[in-house]
Write the structure tokens for this entry.
Amino acid sequence: MSFRTRTPQAAPPSRRRTRSRLSATLLAAAALVGAGLAVPPPAAAASQTFTVDLGTTTGAVLRGSNGALYGQSDDGVPGDNLLAPLKLTTGSQKPPNGAQHPGGDILQVAPSFFRNGGGTMYTNIQDEYSDWPYQNNGIDDYLTQVDTAVNAVKATSYAADVVFVPFNEPDGNWYTGLGSSTSSTYASALSNFESDWSTVYARIKADYPAAKIAGPNTANFNSKFFGDFLTYAKANGQLPDVFTWHELGPSSLADYRSHYTAYRALETARGISAIPINIDEYANRRDLSVPGQMIQWASMFEDTKVYAQQPYWDIAGNMSGNTVHTNVPNGSWWFWHWYAGMTGQTVKTTPPQLNVQDTLQGIASLDTGRKQAQVIVGGSATDTNVVINNIPSATFGSKVEVTVQALDWSGYEGASAPPQTVSRAAYTPSGGSITVPLTGLNSMSAYRITVTPNGGGTATAPGVPSYSSYEAENAAVTDGTVVTQATGDSYATAQLYATSGTKDVGYLVNSDSKVVFTVSVPSAGTYNLRIFYGNENGSPSQQVLRIDGANPQFVAYPSTLNWQYRSHVTVPVTLSAGSHTVSLAVADSTLGTSAGQVTLDKIDLTAVPSTPETVYEATLADVGGSPAYSYSDVGETGTGRLVMVSGDKATFDAYAPTDGYYTVKTDYSSAGGSTALALNGTTVATYGSSGGSATTSGSRLYLTAGINRIAVAPNSGTTLTLRDLKVDGAGDTTGVTKYEAENATLAGAAKAQSDSWASGGKNVGYVGGSSANTLTFGSVSAAAAGRYTVVVHYAQNDRAGSDSYNTNVESRTAQLSVNGGTATTLTFRNTYSWNDYWTLPITVGLSAGTNTLKFSNSSSWAPDFDYVEVAPVNG
């Protein structure tokens, strides 16, 4: 084992919260198909209508529900490339040096939150305590904790953007009688809470007069308590700056709007002006990571213009189940990316059913300046007509272009490519209205409709690869067990994990255990077989894959947080047209018995394009400055062009499925000067004037797996008309050099050790813990001076215990010094076992010739190192 002893943090946490009383066109008959899209539902599903009224605006787009509790664990976890695109409005972290959890300290993560455009950071002061429920040592003891938290934050540059939460779930902590139906019990708890609220409120203000305070922050909506609290707080001049409570049951999807209305009525009855609201924990485990579930929650909060934060049910540092590795997104990250891209005003929407749990819901926006309308819907498998009324002809003209994209669930830890564009079509509104039919929907998926002017031309029909999906529970199962997971029928079932079809196949532990799928593909070719699984063995596991009973091969499954915390692996397979069997088994007479066991959820088959290319529309990019939006010619994508001058910029969140070289191209015309292309903040290419003619320029760039932020900006004197950015290729590794850690220079206690899952069968451990224990790659060659990407392959599995809610995974750090220069601190996220190797990329400057890369940590252990890859950014 590679386990390293580590000095434990003081007062290790034991928590988490007990939740009590949680009261081309899309033709009408055509199914959505595409890479990652779910299999169409039964034909018996009836149609329904979702109506959008662009003539009735409901306020500026707030984007308030994208926050997370303990969404960050460290500076760099998640990485900046995942945080910045989401335009986070809020976040919530533990107070300085809080003992409730090992990571997520506000002083550690706030810098990355704010540098990436974050709005307001909340901190639960009671998380200074280690226990759950919080140990109650009396109000005087608690006031010392308040002083510690407030004074530490007050000293920071971002103190004005922090909100202090003095009590967290008081109805489940210290003041449990607040939920009692016995009047005397309630009255006693109310009196105690009001007294302590006054005491703590006054102490916070004494420590920091400008402090903003939120409360009462109950676990449940409680109209009686809220009314009494508002009366008391107003009378004493101690109203919170933000009113907070939690919505943590599946029934909240039906009840929240009535809660909101009831609360606003309480304010009105007491002559209190509307206080900003933050539902600072919402949703269940089965909702997180699922686009079709998250749109239901987000639509309620956007409709009522409140802030809201996803809960901390499992681990810190993955934005409540929206991110995979440091810079790798899953499907729900792309949902929040859609949400971040909404601009202008929200407009009135009418879903098929309002305030009904697990039904189709949505959000719509109109930006007349950009001449864009966006509609995001999801949560239902029923065919849906999206009717868009009152399309303003003054903005859109007489003809509109409609683009439809689909976003599937990829699992909590399954990497997700960008949403698939499934149709582009021109519509001529009749009486200002169009109807966009959506068929073949999946309740776990979300769908975006973008409406822009069609000023001429015909957009290119999107290429939609063949796709099919097959549930493990419907396959032929030998010596395994079909298990029902989350359904949302109750709070208990909603707290189980999301699973495709609500079932999976587990207990595949015997030599004859296997699952055999019968599949069919329309044509011969290469297909990506994507296997959804869970693996809690504590190391990678295997199964034997056979296609049509032949050519057995082992499939390796990296560890996941637990058996239900879904990820997926992808295996390319070659299939002829027609029917086939896909077998996943524990053992094989040729290969023998596989290592470990896994739980199987489903498989997908997607045709692999011969020339992979992803297109990102310029008019949907994240823009800076004041570019103009032109739709005089719809062009290839149907969404028009950006017209930019110096000071304008378009940033694209380009996805790479794996580390390697890709051709990054821009379709544009320019006059008067040059255009800069920047990768992750650094200029990597400059394109000259095209003389006003349409042209395409490309660069071979090294992109790392996940999100790469690529910006296009005209230089001084340039007018740039930009249509799109394209990323071609599948991650070529020509020009990448690999350096094994065991062949590097080891100093002090650092040593090579055997691990069959490591590259070459070895890794290097015991780096750090002292300045003497170092790992130095001393022969890193660079053909020319310049910027190089170093991808570090590592493993580490530090944990500070767990309970029924949280697994307290911890990160490790190491300092990287290049050629003896100033060291940069790198943060390595937990990989779930000492035998699972993840990657962390960093860009460095190398000199021509031989360079050194030295890893160290004078105060704590670094991770185990497998190898590094070094590649020039410009290939």
